[in-house]
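ok so I'm stuck.
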Amino acid sequence: MSSEKTQAMDSDVESKVAENRHSQWVKLNVGGTVFLTTRTTLCRDPKSFLYRLIQDEPDLNSDKDENGAYLIDRDPTYFGPVLNYLRHGKLVLNKDLADEGVLEEAEFYNITDLIKLVKEKIKERDAKQNQSSTKSVYRVLQCSEEELTQIVSAMSDGWKFEQLVNIGSQYNYGSEDHAEFLCVVSKECPNIVNGQEAEPSEKAKVLQQKGSRM
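replied:
not stuck anymore, here's the structure
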């Protein structure tokens, strides 16, 4: 074999290798923002929209822009976390991104594991919010011994008895002393007031401490 033929064959091999390396990179134009990634990344989930999109004979119709990037009419802000998940298998979100927005994109691109992961994240978030969404509101009722039973039995609408504080005799009627009580009742109420968690009043705290020592 002549040296000219050998050089020509080497040149063809190098050309094919370079072409193959180039074809591993894929451009995606998502909502006007161009993302550059690899076929390996986009093929992480064989059932996904992105996997189907970049096949040699795709079953999806998609136009390309003037630079050869696949055109996808979706929000680029929420595509970033989706692409990063395919790259390293972890869900990383900026604080200004809504979990529901990422879920919407994950469902559009049909990335099964990511859909499951985001749903679990939303479930955990909602559970934490529900735990801290109520607070105990306290009311203090001053009453005589005769009025105490009537007040406690008349409580409704979620109010419940908490503590009874004997504050001693406040007045004398005839020859008998009449004891006075502070009746502490509570109710679970929404915990957010102007976006901030409400604290129990100082009076309620004092009464709780006083009652716990008696």
